[in-house]
Write a structure and sequence with these properties.
0% strand; mainly alpha; 2 domains; 238 residues
Length: 238
């Protein structure tokens, strides 16, 4: 009985090795290579890390400038839902300008905070394990972005919020918000609303940043023109 179990185990291990080798060969063929010797795991991980460094760098650069948020319809920070009614009422009574200035100032604060993301994301890339890289490569077109969210969201929030708060004061968002609300409260039959403005803008800033990182990740995975280095072309070519 023991002899039969041992033989069965050997057969199973042999079959597993054959299947694994076949899977690896197919994977390498899919990315344009023909044998394991041409692309080892360290090269794959290095290529992935380079891809993510390039992609996140572009994403941060895109938002960390004037109109990086404001002129991008996909990530522009709009009036909080909680006080949208305030904006609608003010526009109807001729106070549309304070509303527009407030929206602009929120986006300026986000644009100023964005560069802070670079260090945290690069650290997450450096700490990425082979297993992390494998899961990202085998995952969806935004699996790396999901990885960054998991690893960096709390740290980014803690770093972004004080910068957002300071920037909101510098660009006048806080004063514009108070001015807007004061005008609203002078109107008859209106209800006072409260809002944690720094929290709102910080969350929206991070949502926009991760959206842009996801867009860059999709490009590198699907668009050959986005693979701007030899290593990226080697790892992601088909």
């Amino acid at each position: 009985m023991k002899r039969e179990i041992i033989i069965a185990g050997i057969i199973s291990m042999t079959a597993f090795s054959t299947v694994s080798a076949g899977f690896l060969d197919n994977f390498l063929k899919d990315i344009g290579l023909s044998s394991p010797q041409e692309l080892d795991s360290s090269t794959i991980v290095a290529g992935l890390k380079e891809a993510l460094s390039v992609g996140t760098g572009k994403a941060v650069q895109a938002v960390a400038k004037d109109d990086g948020y404001l002129a991008n319809e996909a990530i522009v920070i709009l009036m909080p839902d909680k006080i949208q009614k305030v904006a609608d009422v003010l526009k109807k009574v001729g106070y549309g300008r304070p509303v527009d200035e407030f929206i602009t100032s929120m986006n300026r604060a986000a644009e100023k905070a964005a560069p802070k993301a670079t260090a945290h994301i690069l650290n997450a890339i450096k700490e990425m394990t082979i297993e992390d890289a494998k899961q990202i490569l085998e995952g969806s077109n935004t699996s790396a972005t999901d990885f960054f969210k998991l690893k960096t969201s709390e740290k980014l929030y803690n770093d972004f919020k004080p910068i957002i708060s300071s920037s909101m004061n510098e660009v006048g968002a806080t004063s514009k918000y108070k001015d807007m609300m004061n005008k609203y409260l002078t109107l008859p039959f209106v209800k006072k609303e409260s809002l944690d403005l720094d929290h709102y803008v910080t969350n929206k800033s991070l949502e926009g940043l991760f959206y842009m990182i996801a867009e860059e990740e999709k490009k590198i995975r699907t668009d050959p023109a986005a693979r701007v280095t030899d290593l990226l072309k080697k790892v992601f070519s088909k």
